[in-house]
Amino acid sequence: MSCCDRGQLRSVDAMLDELLNKAIPVKDSLPILVVDALGKILAEDVISGIDVPPHDNSAMDGYAVNLNDCQTDSAVTLPISQRIPAGSVPQALQPGTAARIFTGATIPENATAVIMQEDCSEQDGQVTLPAGIKLDQNIRPQGQDIKTSSTILQKGHHVRAQDMGLMASIGIAEVKAYRPLKVAILSTGDELIEPGQSISEGQIFNSNRYTLQGFLKGLGFEILDLGIVEDTLDATLKALTNAAESADVIITSGGVSVGEEDHVKAAIDQLGELNLWKLAIKPGKPFAYGKVANTPIMGLPGNPGAVFVTFCILARPFLLKSQGAASVKAHSFKLPIGFSLKKPGKRREYLRTRINYENGEAFIENHPNQSSGVLSSASWADGLAIITENTAPQKGELVEFSPFSELFGNS
Ligand code: AMP
Ligand code: MG
């Protein structure tokens, strides 16, 4: 058990650094089929045992020739000595002849160029080739894509569609990936009921559970969903103990502010180690990090807009690092804003925004409702604009924008 940091606002950067320092990557790996590898994190370097392509091959349907049999300044006619479709094994090119060849077919020994069929004319077993043929033209060299013994993907790489294709291209059907992280989620709040139930006065539907389910599914984690936990210390202690027994990481929503109905902090404090920060982030000021027994826990705020932002900015990189990913920070780029901030704030603000266009130029459009309790602006948006602490950028100024494709994916 340790004491909590209840002091001044902590910066997002300092918080993120600390979280990433504390994240311990999962160690266990398992063999998976390359066909099932999408979204997984590789637990080994993938090294090629072959050259890709394995032979010089033709980039065109056309005719393979030796440059010695061609003229640089005039057309030449040669007899056709063989036909080489893709997948066949050619014979060496006979001197003074051309070979009919097709895209992807192995270049015969002695051939030094391929001329595309559109530039040739074939008649009675002979082909007339144009002038100006160049050495190696339309020949894709052996190993052009991948060389034997080269590392094609590194440990910690997040597998995307093209990586599945790349692994297949070197002939492997299986690869080692880290086992999926098991993440427990629980939603605190006596006011919560589940969608599908009828709502009574004073109740609201549990939306955070669904946002978190969506995030975690998108990242490929296993989810232990402990549902709604009532606002008592006892229930919170039980739920957290249960979660810590079988999950790698616990994420809670709500119950981390200072009210007497907020029991998450006290429960973490009793069961392990609590570090609570008032973060310089908007939305999402209260954020708890700690351990229940030995299991890391992140206590997100209750407000749905704040859950959305704190998950993207803090929980996601922590989870990715814990999953063994080598690269966890989301990219952002600068775009002009189509609005003006009224005054500088002490907290870094993540605005739910989207890209719009005026006269073909992209700009960031702001949603008018940035309340931490509001989720519709997150659904409207396609990224977060990042307003640095103590700045109030005006219309036309450049501001960092991180698209949701960066914040939701695990690349
Ligand atoms: P809390 O931090 O528990 O005081 O919650 C802050 C605000 O978020 C309150 O208005 C809660 O009703 C709301 N809230 C908490 N949990 C959820 C949830 N799972 N789904 C929707 N709203 C929630
Ligand atoms: Mg609550």
Topology at a glance:
Blueprint: H1 12-22, E1 29-33, E2 46-47, E3 57-58, E4 62-65, E5 76-84, E6 98-101, E7 113-116, E8 121-123, E9 126-129, E10 139-140, E11 151-153, H2 161-169, E12 174-178, E13 182-188, E14 192-193, E15 204-205, H3 208-218, E16 222-229, H4 233-246, E17 249-253, H5 264-271, E18 272-278, E19 281-282, E20 286-292, E21 295-300, H6 304-322, E22 333-336, E23 348-358, E24 361-366, H7 376-380, E25 383-387, E26 398-403, H8 404-408
Parallel strand pairs: 5-6, 13-16, 13-17, 14-15, 17-21, 19-23
Antiparallel strand pairs: 1-12, 2-11, 3-10, 4-6, 4-7, 5-9, 8-9, 18-20, 20-21, 22-26, 23-24, 23-25, 25-26
Helix pairs in contact: 1-6, 3-6, 4-5
The structure holds adenosine monophosphate and magnesium ion.
Adenosine monophosphate binds at residues 187-189, 191-192, 204, 206-209, 253-255, 257, 259, 301-304.
